[in-house]
Amino acid sequence: MIQISDGQSLLDICLQELGTVAVLHELALANRLAITEPLRAGQLLVVPASIAARPDVAAYFAARQQRINTSLGSELEEAEPDPVDRLLDFDIRDFSKNDFN
Predict the structure, then answer these.
(1) Where does residue 43 rank: exposed (0-12), middle (13-18), buried (19+ CB within 10 A)?
(2) Is the four-CA dihedral 29, 33, 39, 43 of positive or negative sign?
(3) pLDDT tens digit sequence for 57-70
(4) Contacts of 70 (CB under 8 A, 6+ apart)
(5) How confident is the model at residue 56 (pLDDT cuts 50, 70, 90)?
(6) Distance between CA atoms of residues 35 and 15, nearest Å
(7) Could you read off the pLDDT of 13-48 as tens digits, one per residue?
(8) Residue 39: exposure state from Cβ atoms within 10 A (0-12, 13-18, ≥19)
(9) What share of the chain has pLDDT > 70, as a percent?
(10) What whole-number distance in Å separates Cα of residue 36 and Cα of residue 7?
């Protein structure tokens, strides 16, 4: 079992624990999840054994105590809309018929 950190996805867990994303469907099936289902921090997942796993890659991350996390999780902030409307200075006289030939 693996405990999920904030912002981790099934793809992150595949890389971290099994060393490849090729086992994504196996991981989702073992946990009765859709492959795109968001995970919650603290959630526990079963990590199935797989013949497609790459233990050498998983061991690389484990040896460095690296947790794969490709998202900012709850720290993700929505961007503010651009305050400048780009069409404010639009004027049809800015264009010539030759611009479109």
Answers:
(1) middle
(2) negative
(3) 999 999 999 888 88
(4) 7, 9, 11, 12
(5) very high
(6) 14
(7) 999 999 999 999 999 999 999 998 999 999 999 999
(8) buried
(9) 70
(10) 13
End-to-end CA distance of the chain: 64
Q: Are 48 and 26 in contact (CB under 8 A)?
A: yes
Partnered with residue 69 across adjacent β-strands are none
CA dihedral 6, 8, 10, 16 (to 10 degrees): -120
Q: What percent of the chain has pLDDT over 90?
A: 56
Q: How far, in Å, CA of 93 to CA of 80, rounded?
A: 32
Residue showing tokens 């971290």: 16
Q: Closest Cα to residue 55, out of 94, 85, 8, 16?
A: 16
